[in-house]
Amino acid sequence: MIKKEMIAMLLAGGQGSRLGVLTSKVAKPAVAFGGKYRIIDFPLSNCINSGVDTVGVLTQYQPLRLNTHIGIGIPWDLDKNIGGVTVLPPYEKSSNSEWYTGTANAIYQNLRYMELYNPDYVLILSGDHIYKMDYEVMLDFHKANNADVSIAVMPVPMEEASRFGIVITDENSRITEFQEKPEHPKSNLASMGIYIFTWKVLKEALITLSEQSNCDFGKHVIPYCHENGTKMVAYEYNGYWKDVGTLGSYWEANMELIDIIPEFNLYEEFWKIYTSSEVTPPQYVAADAVIEKSIIADGTEVYGEVHNSVIGAEVTIGKGAVVRDSIIMKGAVIGEGCVVDKAIIAENTVVGANCVLGIGEDVPNKMKPSVYSFGLVTIGEDSVIPPGVKIGKNTAISGATTLEDYPGGVLDSGETLIKAGELA
């Protein structure tokens, strides 16, 4: 019988609908980040840096790129004969076939995978946060407190506390109460969605709640454990942690990487972030190109100007083009003479010559005001923008668009242009 002290279950099946067209063809954890990474690289790197060498990655929505990216786990040194990384999609069972319907239901459907390793502890992680954390330190805390469940929490400003699941603790860090997105929070300790369970406690809770529809950790498992007198403690974390679930927070987290002294440092030797890197040629910067305070990945050719931006691999910035405060993902082409202000342009998109992105007033998006905001222009992958068009703020575009799609050559602020067959 294989025996592992702690295994990790990484929830990476989410659609990430608040990222709009960025996740129409790809799961949120597979979205590019920081020029060369994908969001899932951060929890996976945390695992291997923390000595957790057995990770089940639960996928569901648009898993192809995620599966290809993870492969057999070589970049994270997770290509092990015993343990390593295993991608766990939903599968056909003899009696019925069902999708994962909630975070806890997804874990429940993989009880057999966990039983294979007979762990003492199970670490539950989310695949869509940017942070560095030593899970071994959290495990030591869990053991020292003789806890059944440890929840990672971080202090948030009191005025933002109502956006989170909040925990209330006594002087010994024991959790006495929970509030799910409370109107009047009693504490500012927000749950980070990172849990360590003693295996038998997790197994018993999942089996008991298996009939619960859309079974979820925050809504069902944690309250169930609490009501049954399970010893639960809060592990306070004070490092950098960002939920990149909205376009605004995703854009901000990328922009923070290029600060003079970045709050989140990708260049530290002792806590590397690993990723699956393709073999790409070096970058090329033309004689009259200008690059200021930006991240530029391999294989990118810059003939124009780039200011305060994060540019992915194999991107082309045409002659005379000016890119500011933007994220441009792998393989995108920015045509000659373009002006791009505060845009997120997804992979393999082609922006024709002399386009102007990010003009006009900051008016709310008509179709999805809560998604397409922050004054951003968001363009989904594989899109085509014809030459010479002007695009306003809080806009979304997806698909191969033509000049006919832009009345008078303009997409006004707050408008959405999704071609037939594309997902919004």
Automatic annotation (TrEMBL):
Question: Which keywords has UniProt assigned to this entry?
Answer: ATP-binding, Carbohydrate metabolism, Glycogen biosynthesis, Glycogen metabolism, Nucleotide-binding, Nucleotidyltransferase, Transferase
Q: What class of enzyme is it?
A: transferase
Q: Which Gene3D superfamilies does this entry report, sorted A to Z?
A: Hexapeptide repeat proteins, Spore Coat Polysaccharide Biosynthesis Protein SpsA, Chain A
* A Pfam family recorded for this sequence: NTP_transferase
Q: Which GO terms describe its molecular function?
A: ATP binding; glucose-1-phosphate adenylyltransferase activity
Question: What residue ranges carry the coiled-coil annotation?
Answer: none
Q: What is its EC number?
A: 2.7.7.27
Subunit-level organization: Homotetramer.
Q: What is the protein's known function?
A: Involved in the biosynthesis of ADP-glucose, a building block required for the elongation reactions to produce glycogen. Catalyzes the reaction between ATP and alpha-D-glucose 1-phosphate (G1P) to produce pyrophosphate and ADP-Glc.
Please identify the protein, giving its name as recorded.
Glucose-1-phosphate adenylyltransferase
